Q: What sequence folds into this?
């Protein structure tokens, strides 16, 4: 099976944001986000990954991957002027497609950060890959649906994601597949 290829960005800047590789200084905010049951309710992580220890292990795993031949494209969304952690976005090969994701800390939601970050990531990916760009969205997460629509992604129908096994196992979620038209 053909797998999409993408180049890991070093840093992407927007008018207000810096999308950069995660750093250990992001750990406290990352842990707070993942361990918040309301903030992380639509994220496909196991209950163990949503603990303080699980979040630490996951962040360290991602940071460690940056030095490998197959880095995990997971980026901190940071305030451009203060470098404060606001959330996370990233991309992952999904067969021939590249899936993007975006999350923002609850106290920073409703300010357009997810849309701004995801648009910058989509622009980067559009310039560096021929693969189709997609997002899986849980319909109950209305802000995520609105972000996908603002980005110009088109609803391509229902999906049910099967659990992924390995070092970073995910739970199964159902939702909709959104596609960026060419």
A:
């Amino acid at each position: 099976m053909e797998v999409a290829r993408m180049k890991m960005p070093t840093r992407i800047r927007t008018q207000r944001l810096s999308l950069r590789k995660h750093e250990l200084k992001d750990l406290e905010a990352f842990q707070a986000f993942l361990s918040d049951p309301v903030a992380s309710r639509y994220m496909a992580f196991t209950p163990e990954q949503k603990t303080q220890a699980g979040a630490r292990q996951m962040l360290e795993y991602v940071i460690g991957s940056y030095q490998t031949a197959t880095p995990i494209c997971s980026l901190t969304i940071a305030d451009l002027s203060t470098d404060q952690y606001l959330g996370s976005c990233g991309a992952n090969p999904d067969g021939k497609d590249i899936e993007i994701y975006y999350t923002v800390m609850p106290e920073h939601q409703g300010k357009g950060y997810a849309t701004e970050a995801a648009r910058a990531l989509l622009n980067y990916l559009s310039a560096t890959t021929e693969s189709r760009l997609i997002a899986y969205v849980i319909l109950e997460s209305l802000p995520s649906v609105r972000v996908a629509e603002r980005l110009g992604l088109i609803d391509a129908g229902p999906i049910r994601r099967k659990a992924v096994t390995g070092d970073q196992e995910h739970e199964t979620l159902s939702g909709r597949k959104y596609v960026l038209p060419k």
Notes: The helical segments are 27-35, 52-65, 113-128, 142-150. The domain at 11-179 is CATH 3.40.630.30 (Aminopeptidase). Residues 165-170 have pLDDT under 50 and may be disordered.
